[in-house]
């Protein structure tokens, strides 16, 4: 399975590859923009996440998020040795970033932040002895009238976050209203808030094509068979670690390691055909108008002498 960014839950791309923490036993993977990594940090050799920084006086084993029970993940320092997940800060009301680009410092407004101790329904369902449901802070399901609450990281694990994306990267600058989350009951009945073409909330991340369309396993596409010039219909069988695609063609053939440059989403093909058909229809309509606009010739009277002349000409 391809590695994914811990924050936005999408794979790395050529334009924005994944960055891995060099801390011992950590291996956190993130897109630099999703964690607020600056250009100077990228070119400084080894990179460490906030919990693994060598100069930190806090033992990494003691680091945990104040908003949820999850100890691992993309954490940021708040204050007084408190940490918070980036996703928790993004989705919980009452937490903001002082500087959007670097995503620090984290500013917590206790008046807006939800009261701690409210039950997470996901933790309650998976309770195996120790009750974690009342730890930290929870957010209510975004569906109007639903009273279910959950930890943001619990919702992320079940793919219940309505993630606003820009070309596969988390859009941190969007308003809190767009950072929604849904319980399982309302996930399927809620419109997708993501502006990425083809991206659907709660689905397995896929590959972003050149036109911005996201394709995933199970999607219907068209591809140039073995680099030829003819498009064949098929279904995406899987997304490979090297960012290529495996395809089951509808005529029974199979092809592996297909470069995304050879893929065309069926929707795009249909749109192209529709545009061509529209153009042809407009051209035909124009020709029809041109013919109808041709001035008619002089009227021929078939009365009296004229009618007799026509009959004579026909007899000849």
Q: Could you walk me through the main structural features you see in this protein, from its secondary elements to its overall organization?
A:
By secondary structure, this protein is α+β, with helices and mostly antiparallel strands. 21% of the residues lie in helices and 19% in strands. It contains eight helices and 19 strands. The strands form eight sheets. It has a five-stranded antiparallel beta sheet. The longest helix is centred in the last third of the chain and has 27 residues. The chain is globular and about 70 Å long. About 11% of the residues have low confidence.
Helix proportion:
10-25%
- Tell how many strands the DSSP assignment holds: 19
Number of helices: 8
Mean pLDDT: 74
* Rg over C-alpha atoms, rounded to the nearest angstrom: 30 Å
Low-confidence stretches: 190-204, 267-276, 299-307
What separation lies between the terminal Cα atoms? 88 Å
Largest sheet: 5 strands, antiparallel
| Strand ordering within the main sheet | 18-17-16-15-19
What portion of residues belong to β-strands?
15-25%
| Element-by-element helix/strand order | EEHHEEHEEHEEHEEEEHEEEEEEEHH
What is the general shape? globular
Which structural class do the helices and strands define?
alpha+beta
Concise summary:
The protein is of the alpha+beta class. It is built from eight helices and 19 strands.
Write the layout of secondary structure elements.
Elements: E1 19-20, E2 29-30, H1 32-35, H2 39-42, E3 75-77, E4 83-85, H3 86-91, E5 95-97, E6 106-108, H4 121-125, E7 139-140, E8 149-150, H5 152-157, E9 161-162, E10 165-166, E11 169-170, E12 180-181, H6 184-187, E13 207-208, E14 214-215, E15 220-224, E16 231-239, E17 245-249, E18 254-258, E19 263-265, H7 266-292, H8 305-315
Antiparallel strand pairs: 1-2, 3-4, 5-6, 7-8, 9-12, 10-11, 13-14, 15-16, 15-19, 16-17, 17-18
């Amino acid at each position: 399975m391809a590695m994914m960014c811990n924050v936005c839950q999408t794979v790395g791309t050529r334009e924005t590859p994944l960055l891995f923490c060099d801390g011992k036993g950590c291996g956190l993977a993130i897109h630099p923009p999703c964690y607020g990594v600056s250009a100077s940090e990228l070119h400084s050799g080894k990179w460490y996440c906030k919990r693994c920084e060598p100069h930190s006086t806090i033992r990494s084993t003691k680091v945990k998020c104040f908003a949820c029970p999850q100890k691992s993940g993309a954490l940021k320092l708040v204050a007084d040795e408190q940490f918070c997940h980036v996703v928790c800060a993004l989705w919980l009301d009452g937490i903001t970033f002082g500087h959007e680009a670097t995503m620090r410092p984290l500013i917590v407004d206790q008046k807006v932040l939800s009261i701690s101790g409210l039950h997470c329904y996901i933790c309650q369902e998976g309770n195996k002895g120790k009750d974690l449901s009342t730890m930290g802070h929870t957010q209510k399901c975004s569906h109007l009238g639903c009273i279910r609450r959950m930890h943001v990281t619990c919702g992320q694990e079940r793919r219940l976050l309505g993630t606003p994306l820009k070309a596969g990267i988390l859009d941190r600058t969007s308003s809190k209203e767009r950072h929604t989350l849904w319980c399982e009951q309302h996930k399927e009945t809620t419109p997708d808030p993501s502006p990425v073409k083809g991206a659907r909330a709660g689905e397995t991340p896929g590959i972003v094509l050149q036109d911005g369309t996201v394709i995933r396993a199970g999607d219907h596409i068209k591809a140039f068979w073995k680099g030829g010039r003819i498009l064949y219909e098929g279904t995406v069988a899987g997304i490979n670690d090297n960012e290529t695609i495996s395809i089951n063609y509808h005529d029974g053939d199979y092809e592996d390691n297909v470069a995304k440059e050879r893929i065309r989403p069926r929707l795009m093909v249909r749109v192209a055909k529709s545009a061509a058909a529209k153009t042809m229809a407009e051209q035909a309509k124009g020709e029809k108008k041109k013919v109808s606009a041709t001035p008619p010739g002089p009227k021929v009277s078939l009365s009296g002498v004229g009618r007799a002349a026509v009959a004579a000409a026909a007899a000849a």
